[in-house]
Write a structure and sequence with these properties.
Layout (H helix, E strand, L loop, with lengths): L10 E10 L2 E11 L4 E5 L6 H8 L7 E6 L2 E2 L2 E4 L2 E4 L2 H8 L2 E4 L11 H11 L5 H14 L15 H13 L5 E5 L7 H17 L3 E4 L3 H7 L2 E6 L2 E7 H6 L4 H11 L1
Helix pairs in contact: 3-4, 3-5, 4-5, 5-6
Length: about 260
Protein backbone atom coordinates (compact mmCIF):
# COMPACT_ATOMS: atom_id res chain seq x y z
CA UNK A 1 0.00 0.00 0.00
CA UNK A 2 1.29 3.52 -0.78
CA UNK A 3 2.72 5.68 1.98
CA UNK A 4 -0.26 7.13 3.89
CA UNK A 5 1.40 10.56 4.03
CA UNK A 6 1.29 10.82 0.22
CA UNK A 7 -2.26 9.59 -0.37
CA UNK A 8 -5.54 11.33 0.42
CA UNK A 9 -7.62 9.06 2.67
CA UNK A 10 -10.57 7.45 0.95
CA UNK A 11 -12.54 8.35 4.05
CA UNK A 12 -11.70 10.38 7.14
CA UNK A 13 -13.68 11.03 10.32
CA UNK A 14 -12.65 13.74 12.75
CA UNK A 15 -14.39 13.94 16.11
CA UNK A 16 -17.69 12.46 14.89
CA UNK A 17 -20.34 12.42 17.61
CA UNK A 18 -23.97 11.35 17.70
CA UNK A 19 -26.66 11.71 20.36
CA UNK A 20 -30.03 10.01 20.59
CA UNK A 21 -31.77 12.17 23.15
CA UNK A 22 -29.42 12.33 26.13
CA UNK A 23 -27.63 9.13 25.12
CA UNK A 24 -24.22 9.61 23.51
CA UNK A 25 -24.05 6.86 20.87
CA UNK A 26 -20.78 8.06 19.30
CA UNK A 27 -18.18 10.04 21.23
CA UNK A 28 -15.70 11.98 19.08
CA UNK A 29 -14.73 9.17 16.70
CA UNK A 30 -11.53 9.65 14.69
CA UNK A 31 -10.88 7.26 11.79
CA UNK A 32 -8.82 7.30 8.60
CA UNK A 33 -9.40 4.70 5.89
CA UNK A 34 -6.84 4.61 3.08
CA UNK A 35 -7.65 3.48 -0.48
CA UNK A 36 -7.61 -0.30 -0.72
CA UNK A 37 -8.00 -0.93 3.02
CA UNK A 38 -10.55 -3.25 4.60
CA UNK A 39 -11.37 -1.94 8.06
CA UNK A 40 -13.51 -4.15 10.30
CA UNK A 41 -15.51 -2.49 13.07
CA UNK A 42 -15.83 -4.88 16.00
CA UNK A 43 -17.53 -4.50 19.34
CA UNK A 44 -20.49 -5.64 21.42
CA UNK A 45 -24.06 -4.95 20.40
CA UNK A 46 -24.99 -1.33 21.09
CA UNK A 47 -21.42 -0.06 20.80
CA UNK A 48 -22.30 2.35 17.96
CA UNK A 49 -20.97 0.43 14.95
CA UNK A 50 -24.10 0.62 12.78
CA UNK A 51 -24.72 4.24 13.77
CA UNK A 52 -21.17 5.08 12.68
CA UNK A 53 -21.80 3.56 9.23
CA UNK A 54 -25.07 5.45 8.91
CA UNK A 55 -23.36 8.73 9.81
CA UNK A 56 -20.71 8.17 7.14
CA UNK A 57 -23.30 8.34 4.34
CA UNK A 58 -25.53 10.76 6.26
CA UNK A 59 -28.43 8.34 6.78
CA UNK A 60 -27.99 9.64 10.32
CA UNK A 61 -26.91 13.25 10.79
CA UNK A 62 -23.90 13.53 13.12
CA UNK A 63 -24.21 15.99 15.98
CA UNK A 64 -20.56 16.94 15.74
CA UNK A 65 -17.37 16.39 13.84
CA UNK A 66 -16.30 16.25 10.20
CA UNK A 67 -16.57 13.48 7.61
CA UNK A 68 -14.41 13.70 4.47
CA UNK A 69 -14.71 11.59 1.33
CA UNK A 70 -11.48 11.90 -0.68
CA UNK A 71 -10.79 15.15 1.15
CA UNK A 72 -14.24 16.70 0.49
CA UNK A 73 -16.72 17.25 3.30
CA UNK A 74 -19.83 15.09 3.42
CA UNK A 75 -23.21 16.42 4.50
CA UNK A 76 -22.43 20.14 4.61
CA UNK A 77 -21.18 22.81 2.21
CA UNK A 78 -19.35 26.09 2.61
CA UNK A 79 -21.34 29.15 1.47
CA UNK A 80 -21.09 32.93 1.84
CA UNK A 81 -23.48 32.54 4.79
CA UNK A 82 -21.29 29.93 6.49
CA UNK A 83 -21.54 26.16 6.62
CA UNK A 84 -24.98 24.86 5.62
CA UNK A 85 -26.48 21.39 5.23
CA UNK A 86 -26.23 19.89 1.75
CA UNK A 87 -29.39 19.83 -0.35
CA UNK A 88 -31.00 16.43 -0.88
CA UNK A 89 -29.67 16.30 -4.43
CA UNK A 90 -26.10 16.93 -3.23
CA UNK A 91 -26.44 14.22 -0.58
CA UNK A 92 -27.81 11.81 -3.16
CA UNK A 93 -24.74 12.45 -5.33
CA UNK A 94 -22.44 11.73 -2.36
CA UNK A 95 -24.28 8.49 -1.62
CA UNK A 96 -23.63 7.21 -5.14
CA UNK A 97 -19.93 7.24 -4.18
CA UNK A 98 -20.47 5.35 -0.88
CA UNK A 99 -22.04 1.94 -1.42
CA UNK A 100 -23.86 0.20 1.42
CA UNK A 101 -24.85 -3.43 1.92
CA UNK A 102 -27.46 -3.88 4.64
CA UNK A 103 -28.34 -6.77 6.94
CA UNK A 104 -31.66 -7.49 5.23
CA UNK A 105 -30.75 -7.20 1.54
CA UNK A 106 -33.35 -4.48 0.66
CA UNK A 107 -33.76 -5.84 -2.89
CA UNK A 108 -36.64 -4.60 -5.03
CA UNK A 109 -39.05 -7.59 -5.08
CA UNK A 110 -40.58 -6.69 -8.46
CA UNK A 111 -37.20 -6.80 -10.24
CA UNK A 112 -35.07 -9.79 -11.20
CA UNK A 113 -31.50 -10.17 -9.97
CA UNK A 114 -30.30 -8.42 -13.12
CA UNK A 115 -32.99 -5.75 -12.79
CA UNK A 116 -31.89 -4.99 -9.22
CA UNK A 117 -28.28 -4.54 -10.33
CA UNK A 118 -28.98 -2.29 -13.34
CA UNK A 119 -31.71 -0.08 -11.84
CA UNK A 120 -29.59 2.59 -10.14
CA UNK A 121 -26.74 2.88 -12.69
CA UNK A 122 -29.33 3.51 -15.42
CA UNK A 123 -31.75 5.79 -13.56
CA UNK A 124 -29.43 7.52 -11.06
CA UNK A 125 -26.10 7.66 -12.90
CA UNK A 126 -27.80 7.93 -16.33
CA UNK A 127 -25.39 5.44 -17.86
CA UNK A 128 -26.27 3.72 -21.18
CA UNK A 129 -28.45 0.66 -20.65
CA UNK A 130 -26.44 -1.64 -22.92
CA UNK A 131 -23.20 -0.82 -21.10
CA UNK A 132 -24.83 -1.25 -17.68
CA UNK A 133 -26.38 -4.62 -18.55
CA UNK A 134 -23.03 -5.90 -19.78
CA UNK A 135 -21.34 -4.80 -16.55
CA UNK A 136 -24.17 -6.19 -14.40
CA UNK A 137 -23.83 -9.60 -16.05
CA UNK A 138 -20.13 -9.53 -15.23
CA UNK A 139 -20.86 -8.59 -11.60
CA UNK A 140 -23.44 -11.37 -11.21
CA UNK A 141 -20.86 -13.80 -12.54
CA UNK A 142 -18.32 -12.33 -10.10
CA UNK A 143 -20.60 -13.13 -7.13
CA UNK A 144 -21.42 -16.58 -8.52
CA UNK A 145 -24.96 -15.85 -9.72
CA UNK A 146 -24.79 -15.68 -13.51
CA UNK A 147 -27.41 -18.46 -13.65
CA UNK A 148 -29.83 -16.39 -11.50
CA UNK A 149 -29.90 -13.21 -13.64
CA UNK A 150 -33.61 -13.59 -14.49
CA UNK A 151 -34.77 -14.86 -11.09
CA UNK A 152 -36.85 -12.72 -8.70
CA UNK A 153 -35.76 -12.27 -5.06
CA UNK A 154 -38.64 -14.41 -3.73
CA UNK A 155 -37.01 -17.42 -5.40
CA UNK A 156 -33.48 -16.77 -4.11
CA UNK A 157 -31.92 -17.96 -0.87
CA UNK A 158 -30.79 -15.42 1.71
CA UNK A 159 -27.17 -15.88 0.67
CA UNK A 160 -28.06 -15.39 -2.98
CA UNK A 161 -30.06 -12.24 -2.18
CA UNK A 162 -27.13 -10.80 -0.24
CA UNK A 163 -24.77 -11.53 -3.12
CA UNK A 164 -27.17 -9.73 -5.49
CA UNK A 165 -27.12 -6.81 -3.03
CA UNK A 166 -23.31 -6.75 -3.18
CA UNK A 167 -23.39 -6.80 -7.00
CA UNK A 168 -25.95 -3.98 -6.92
CA UNK A 169 -23.68 -1.88 -4.68
CA UNK A 170 -20.66 -2.56 -6.91
CA UNK A 171 -22.61 -1.54 -10.01
CA UNK A 172 -22.56 2.05 -8.75
CA UNK A 173 -18.73 1.96 -8.83
CA UNK A 174 -18.43 3.24 -5.25
CA UNK A 175 -15.23 4.66 -3.83
CA UNK A 176 -15.99 3.12 -0.42
CA UNK A 177 -18.22 0.13 0.31
CA UNK A 178 -19.92 -0.18 3.71
CA UNK A 179 -21.19 -3.51 5.06
CA UNK A 180 -23.56 -3.54 8.04
CA UNK A 181 -23.44 -7.07 9.48
CA UNK A 182 -24.12 -8.55 6.04
CA UNK A 183 -24.35 -12.16 7.28
CA UNK A 184 -26.38 -11.65 10.46
CA UNK A 185 -29.73 -12.42 8.79
CA UNK A 186 -28.46 -15.59 7.08
CA UNK A 187 -28.77 -19.23 8.05
CA UNK A 188 -25.34 -20.49 9.19
CA UNK A 189 -24.81 -22.66 6.10
CA UNK A 190 -25.25 -19.62 3.81
CA UNK A 191 -22.78 -17.33 5.60
CA UNK A 192 -19.70 -18.71 3.86
CA UNK A 193 -20.84 -17.91 0.33
CA UNK A 194 -21.22 -14.22 1.20
CA UNK A 195 -17.96 -14.02 3.14
CA UNK A 196 -16.11 -15.58 0.19
CA UNK A 197 -17.29 -12.76 -2.09
CA UNK A 198 -16.28 -10.17 0.51
CA UNK A 199 -12.82 -11.73 0.95
CA UNK A 200 -12.32 -11.62 -2.82
CA UNK A 201 -13.22 -7.91 -2.84
CA UNK A 202 -10.78 -7.24 0.00
CA UNK A 203 -7.98 -9.05 -1.81
CA UNK A 204 -8.75 -7.08 -5.00
CA UNK A 205 -8.27 -3.79 -3.12
CA UNK A 206 -11.85 -2.59 -2.73
CA UNK A 207 -11.98 0.03 0.04
CA UNK A 208 -14.37 -1.40 2.63
CA UNK A 209 -15.63 -0.75 6.15
CA UNK A 210 -17.28 -3.83 7.57
CA UNK A 211 -19.36 -4.17 10.71
CA UNK A 212 -19.27 -7.87 11.52
CA UNK A 213 -19.39 -10.51 14.22
CA UNK A 214 -17.54 -12.96 11.97
CA UNK A 215 -14.23 -13.05 13.76
CA UNK A 216 -12.46 -15.38 11.32
CA UNK A 217 -13.41 -13.13 8.41
CA UNK A 218 -12.07 -10.10 10.29
CA UNK A 219 -8.84 -11.91 11.05
CA UNK A 220 -8.35 -13.14 7.48
CA UNK A 221 -9.55 -10.15 5.43
CA UNK A 222 -9.09 -6.97 7.48
CA UNK A 223 -6.18 -4.61 7.01
CA UNK A 224 -7.08 -3.11 10.37
CA UNK A 225 -9.44 -3.67 13.28
CA UNK A 226 -11.24 -0.82 15.03
CA UNK A 227 -12.81 -1.98 18.30
CA UNK A 228 -15.66 0.12 19.68
CA UNK A 229 -17.41 0.02 23.04
CA UNK A 230 -20.02 2.45 24.35
CA UNK A 231 -19.51 4.75 21.37
CA UNK A 232 -15.75 5.08 21.76
CA UNK A 233 -12.77 3.65 19.93
CA UNK A 234 -11.14 1.44 22.54
CA UNK A 235 -8.43 -0.05 20.35
CA UNK A 236 -7.17 0.15 16.77
CA UNK A 237 -4.60 -2.26 15.37
CA UNK A 238 -3.60 -4.49 12.47
CA UNK A 239 -5.75 -7.63 12.40
CA UNK A 240 -3.04 -10.07 13.50
CA UNK A 241 -1.92 -7.80 16.31
CA UNK A 242 -5.48 -7.27 17.59
CA UNK A 243 -6.33 -10.96 17.68
CA UNK A 244 -2.99 -12.19 19.00
CA UNK A 245 -1.90 -9.32 21.27
CA UNK A 246 -4.87 -7.12 22.23
CA UNK A 247 -3.69 -4.10 24.18
CA UNK A 248 -6.73 -3.38 26.36
CA UNK A 249 -8.53 -5.46 28.94
CA UNK A 250 -11.87 -4.71 27.27
CA UNK A 251 -10.62 -6.09 23.95
CA UNK A 252 -9.32 -9.21 25.69
CA UNK A 253 -12.69 -9.79 27.37
CA UNK A 254 -14.48 -9.41 24.03
CA UNK A 255 -12.18 -11.87 22.26
CA UNK A 256 -12.36 -14.41 25.11
CA UNK A 257 -16.14 -14.43 24.80
CA UNK A 258 -15.97 -15.18 21.09
CA UNK A 259 -13.22 -17.76 21.51
CA UNK A 260 -15.49 -19.65 23.90
Amino acid sequence: MPDDTQVVPALELRGVSKLFGDHEVLARIDLRVMPGETVCLLGPSGSGKTTLLRCINWLETPDGGVILLRGKRVGVRQTHDGILPMHDRELAAIRTRIGMVFQHFNLWPHLTALGNVIESPIHVLRRPRREVVHEAEYLLEKVGLSDKRDVYPAYLSGGQMQRVAIARALAMRPEVLLFDEPTSALDPELVGEVLTVMKDLAHEGMTMIVVTHEMQFARDAASRIVFLDKGRVIEEAAADEFFERPKTERSRQFLERYNR
